[in-house]
Structure formats: C-alpha cells, structure tokens
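Supplementary Methods, section 5.1.

A reviewer requested that the exact input to the structure prediction be made available. We therefore reproduce it here, unchanged from the version used in the analyses.
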Amino acid sequence: MGESGTGKELFAQAIHNRSNRRERPFIPVNCAAIPSALLESELFGYEEGSFTHAKKGGKMGLFELANDGTIFLDEVGDMPFELQAKLLRVLQEQKIRRVGGTEEKDINVRVIAATNRDLEQLVFKNRFRQDLFYRLNVIRIEIPPLRERREDIPKLIDKFLRSSSRNVFAIDSIDEEAMKLLQSYDWPGNVRELKNAIDYAVCMADGREIQLCHLPKWISKLETVPIRTNRTLREVIEEAERKLIRETLNRCGNGIEEKKKAAQELGISLATLYNKIKKYHLDTEEDGF
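The structure derived from this sequence is encoded token-by-token as follows.
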C-alpha cells in the first residue's frame, strides 16, 4: 500500500531479489495500463484461434512467464471486477487456463500486489471483491509518503546525483539553502517527483553544485513571497520558512503532541521547532497561539 511514486515496484523487486526465487523471473504488470479487453489474455495467455488476430500457436501469459518467480500486480485496485474472480481462482488453485483453452496448467508464482487506492473502501462500494481482498491481504506493507520520511530526502538526492554524474553531468553537491527548501516541500508526487526535480536542477546547474536558483519553480516557495530588490536571499528564505512553520502549526495545533507531529511533518526535531517558534515570534497572539 502506498501513494503513487513512493517506490512500491522497487520494494517488490527488493523482496524478489532477497528471496529464493531471485534467479527466476520478476514480471511487473500495470493493471491500470492494459485495456480491460486485453488484460485477461495478457495475464493468462490464449490459444490459437481463440479470437480474431490471435497469434498462430497461441501466446503464453504473464503468469506462465513468471512461473517459479514473482509476478507484481501494480494498481491491482483498477483491475476490472469481472476479471477479479478469475484472478482469485488462480491464487487459490495455483492453476491457469489460457483464453480459449480447455487444459489447466499448474503454476508456482509468488504474487505481490500494489495499489495507491483504499481497497477496503472499494470493497465497501462493491467495486473490489471482498474474497480477493482477503486473499491478497496476507502480509500488508504500507510504504509511507515522502513527506512522512523527510530524513530520506538527502540520501535519495545523493543517489540521484551519483546516478546523474555517471551519465553526463558532474554535479556532486547541493547547497544548504536548496536542501532546506527540498526538505520543507511536501512532495505530493513522492520519490518520483523528487527525482524529476533533481534531474531538472542538474540540467540547470552551471557548476558542480545545485543552488536554490536551479530548483524547479513548481516546488519553490519563493514564488509566493513578495520580492523586494533590497532583500537578501537569506531574508527571503527565512520568510518562506516562517510561513511554512506557521501554516503547519495552525494545521496541527499548539499542544505538545501536536507540536511533535508538526516537527515530524517539517522533518526537524521538536527542540529545533521550539527554537524557530521563538526566533520567528510564532508564540504570540497575532500568530494564533
């Protein structure tokens, strides 16, 4: 379970790579990307002559290709309702039958499913089979969004920079102000959005270091801050930081537990949060506290 862009497929690949199936295939399938009319034949294969334009000799399905390995069903919450019953039978019987075929074939496949949707809510709305949900929900792993694990951001950026440097560019660092802004942003697109932002900054940088001006405008809080020609860059950043902390505190509340939650969202310690509240005078009545 996890929002789009959190790295669910990467996690599934890691499970496969650490298992005793690692020498066998890992087959990813995006259930939302394949048209409903084709998904059954893609998953289970088809026999020759089973429909118009069917390949001579038929075609092996993805479950057969993944035999003795792992199949990763991404966006399983978008699977057509009528196909869910067939998937349930495959999971229960460990057998598949090609479209247009009469013979069943034994398979030995580890199934890892992923979704960014609330399957329990879909079950409640009769849009996802309850029995299939229980069949899939054996070991449930929830991958938190990037905004809830901001401590990962510097590590991910370091990896992305090393990857970019191996390709074309020679960027090897990011300055403190740029890193501060990246760690304060909420990343609705999660790790995927972070990678795109770093790729953009690498292309814009004119030296070996990424600076604030190289970051894409869609994440820059500076756009919402009135710019005066007589203000320094530090003053602009501090105003953006003050605004973000104030908004977070207003949303979370002023109690000790609420401030702990606010500090976690901001990716800083509680002590640092108190210091910044004092620095920016956010504990006065005019700021809602």
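Residues 233-252 form the longest helix (20 residues). These observations are discussed further in the main text.
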